[in-house]
Amino acid sequence: MSSLPGLAAAAHREWLDALRQAEEMLRGSAAPATALDQAEGYRYLSRLATTALWTFVENGDPLHPKLYCNSDAHMKYGVDNPDNLYLRCALDPAHDYRLWGQRGEAPYLGITVGGDFYGGSESVGTLAQHQLDEFSVAADGSFELYLSAEERPGNWIRLDPRARGMILRQTFFDRDAQRPAQLSIERLGAAGPPAPLSPEALAAGLRRAAAFVLGCTQLFLKMSASWARRPNQLLGAPGRETRHLHGDPDIYYAPGYWRLAPEEALVVEVTPAPRFLYWGFQLCNYWLESLDYETRAVATNHQRAKAAHDGAARLIVAHQDPGVPNWLDTAGHAEGAMCFRWLLAGDDPPLPQLSVVKFSELRA
User: Fold this and answer.
1) pLDDT tens, 298-328?
2) For the domain with range 83-117+127-185, which CATH number is right: 2.20.25.90, 3.40.50.10190, 2.60.120.600, 3.20.20.70?
């Protein structure tokens, strides 16, 4: 490896330094001292590193863009929604792009065009937000959509000069039953395969990956610590106020932090908004990762939750199954983050009401 070009070697050292700095942030945080939370913290850092390399080194070329999943059951950060399928691709506003495919069955498909991810000088957040259903989609579900700086006829999204990428959020009521969209993207005028990897391209990708890891670690630790100061509360914010965090303005976010003794449970009373497409509630760990939604009931939504005739739902967060509907499993944690989302419900939907009760009182 002694012959590795100097530019790539220097960037790789910066990458390793960023991981060490992020580890120091984790070690200096107010995270719970349990073996589970500490182990998840180191796994979280390894997942952030994986996501960063996947995003900026493997899929960071806007001249040959690819739609790829950048958050799933094993790559988690920033209160990922278990009901969402997240796809991302790199963009450069100096070029024109075509997005096409089949609409699929997700009730919501949001298109977010934004600046660079958390970290670096261009972290400007959400620049444009659209729903696919705003555009013309054929009866068979097929569509094509153009993204460019200059206006084009038909389905078109303007690319801001600061745009660096696109996030596609597909929100499902039932991910097992509803078919996801089939999507592709291309840069207009592209010819031939990508150029072989150069030291310059690798260095640029590693430096953006390093900024992402440091930016995410710092930002999300700050958020978690802030919410933890007011446990068992939800703090509402319209999506337009979360643009700097690459939030979706169609979503009303209500994050918070839960903390329960072994004999306690948290009751979350949900009252329907006058209008909405979806609501969802989830549990996370201190590191703002969704809990294990593949094997445990750690999240629910307006369709899965058992509700009263008026649409109200009573969710139960507890360490063990209380034998009543809508139990959400804390998965071995005594505390962690949580989030409630309204989708297409306006800027002032009702916040769920939270109360801590004795576990023994739940059946009554």
Assistant:
1) 999 999 999 988 889 999 999 999 999 999 9
2) 2.60.120.600
